[in-house]
Write a structure and sequence with these properties.
This protein has helices spanning 2-20, 26-44, 50-60, 63-76, 108-122, 132-138, 144-147, 152-158, 160-175, 188-201, 208-234, 240-273. It is mainly alpha-helical and 274 residues long. The chain is rod-shaped, with a radius of gyration of 30 Å.
């Protein structure tokens, strides 16, 4: 979490520094980058949440636009904001023009340190983490700025209550095939489902509609699904006892199926809203 948040800040400041090359003088550029980094840290307020950091960076806008604004400010103050480019040089025996070149005056040691820091923050710190290779492969095509620093791990870290609710609903479904003794008059899967439903209802990450779908799907499957499938399985048989036998035979399975559908919906909405 901390490494990814710092990586977002480092990438943004690096883009601003790159945009300032050839536009601002060295002393102006270093001062601009330092002030920009300090301002970001101030707005960030010590947060290590990549989503919060991404939103803070979004308020600053395009780094190139910040550089242009700084150049205009320096010009209005009477200072010379631009680096003097080397004069145009033509080869002695060629008509091919050589474009003016701006010398990158970042010290080699600083540039090397920035590259090493990016490499460590981007992936080397994840060595030894479970499924780190799979995680890097899944996120290989993702731009941290475009995704807001979001992946499965950051969503789980940022929404512990919602993850607990999803886990309880899944556990309730998995307990259905087990012949567990009842607690008073309540079956154990029903108790676990009720705990998961209560946790879902206390969450403010999902909308009311999403919460109703998530906790209502298992009951819908158990009740409506059990009645419909049970009636179809009765077929030509008559009698309420035959219907009840078929209902109890399929209602648990329908509860598991619709719990899975509700969990998929909650997980999808949690990812979409993160």
């Amino acid at each position: 979490m901390i490494e990814r948040a710092d990586q977002l800040v480092l990438d943004y400041v690096s883009k601003a520094a790159d945009a300032a090359h050839g536009v601002l003088r060295q002393d102006h550029r270093l001062d601009f980058v330092q002030r920009l980094r300090a301002r970001i840290e101030s707005e960030r307020s010590g947060s290590e949440d990549p989503k919060v950091v991404a939103r803070v960076l979004a308020t600053f806008g395009d780094p190139a636009a910040l550089v242009e604004r700084e150049a205009r400010r320096l010009s209005s103050d009477g200072e010379v904001p631009r680096i003097q480019a080397e004069p145009e040089v033509r080869p002695a025996e060629s008509d091919t023009a050589v474009f003016p070149r701006v010398v990158d005056d970042v010290p080699p040691g600083v540039a090397r340190g920035m590259r090493e820091a990016r490499a460590r923050l981007a992936g080397r710190t994840e060595r030894g983490l479970p499924f780190a290779g799979l995680r890097r492969a899944v996120m290989a095509g993702a731009n941290p700025m475009a995704t807001g620093g979001r992946d499965a791990r950051t969503v789980v870290k940022g929404h512990p209550r919602e993850v607990l609710a999803i886990g309880l609903l899944l556990l309730a479904a998995l307990l259905v095939p087990m012949s567990l003794p009842s607690v008073a008059i309540f079956q154990v899967p029903v108790i676990v489902w009720a705990a998961g439903a209560a946790t879902v209802l206390t969450s403010d990450s999902w909308s009311f509609r999403d919460r109703m779908i998530g906790i209502g799907a298992p009951m819908f499957g158990y009740g409506v699904g059990g009645v419909v499938i049970g009636a179809l399985r009765v077929g030509g048989e008559s009698g309420f006892s035959a219907f009840l036998a078929q209902f109890y035979a399929v209602s648990g399975i329908m509860f598991m199926i619709f719990t899975g559908l509700g969990v998929v919906w909650l997980a999808y909405r949690l990812w979409d809203l993160s």
